[in-house]
Design a protein that fits this description.
The protein is α+β, with helices and mostly antiparallel strands and 224 residues long. It contains eight helices and six strands, in the order ααβαααβββαβαβα. The longest helix is centred in the middle third of the chain and has 22 residues.
């Protein structure tokens, strides 16, 4: 592909460090990310919403298939709407925990102590509901394809979680499958599908998290 395949190109420069600095920065970043945890008990203390919006801006800078940017982020702070979303989520989760989930799945969840009750949807001061756009729409109502939608939105969400951690907030990736009720509650168009519901806030005072052990590098890295 040549420059002639695009209408315009702009110069790009990236700060370059020596190998020693690169190693130090990568070690510090990896160690810092090890402190990120999913939290299910939130403080009801208000959070700086403009800072959260900036985190969403960071997420929206993610790479995407053919630069289609197939995502919509819904920032939900209205208490009545969050209460409505909680009721709908718990109805779906009840079905999950009482028949939809396999016995193996339920057994794997036992150490986490989760169930169909999801008070964090109301307790967290904000939700970020992420939707994937399965296709684009034209002004005339037609369809334009999107590519690698799940991969693109997944990368974006990873950047969002990192950005939220960077400003000192905690988050939870909540997937009350099926999630059609989220599109209905938020009035989203038919070409959008709910991808994740992410409660965001400060952790509740004295909150505890499971003492998880992450895989070692020998378990997740294969070099050739």
């Amino acid at each position: 592909m040549t420059a002639q395949d695009y209408e315009s190109f702009v110069p790009y420069e990236l700060t370059r460090w020596d190998a020693e600095e690169m190693l130090a920065r990568s070690a510090a970043f990896a160690q810092w990310l090890q402190t990120r945890r999913s939290v299910r008990v939130f403080s009801q203390e208000p959070i700086p919403l403009e800072a959260v919006r900036r985190c969403i801006d960071a997420a929206a800078s993610a790479p995407s298939g053919a630069h289609k940017q197939p995502w919509t982020f819904c920032l939900v702070t209205d208490p009545n709407l969050r209460a409505s979303i909680r009721r709908a989520a718990e109805a779906e989760e009840y079905q999950n925990y009482h028949g939809r989930m396999s016995s193996a799945w339920l057994k794997d969840l036992e150490p986490l102590g989760t169930n169909h009750l999801k008070p964090f949807i109301e307790e967290a001061p904000a939700l970020i509901v992420v939707f994937k756009q399965i296709h684009d729409t034209t002004a005339e109502g037609g369809r334009k394809p999107n590519y690698y939608v799940n991969e693109s939105v997944g990368i974006s969400v990873g950047m969002l979680l990192t950005a939220l951690h960077h400003i000192g907030l905690v988050a939870l990736t909540h997937t009350p499958s099926p999630m059609g009720f989220l599109a209905e509650a938020l009035g989203r168009p038919s070409h959008e599908r709910a991808f994740l519901n992410i409660p965001v806030g400060f952790p509740a005072k004295g909150v505890q998290v499971p003492d998880l052990q992450r895989k070692t590098r020998r378990e997740y890295l294969v070099e050739y």
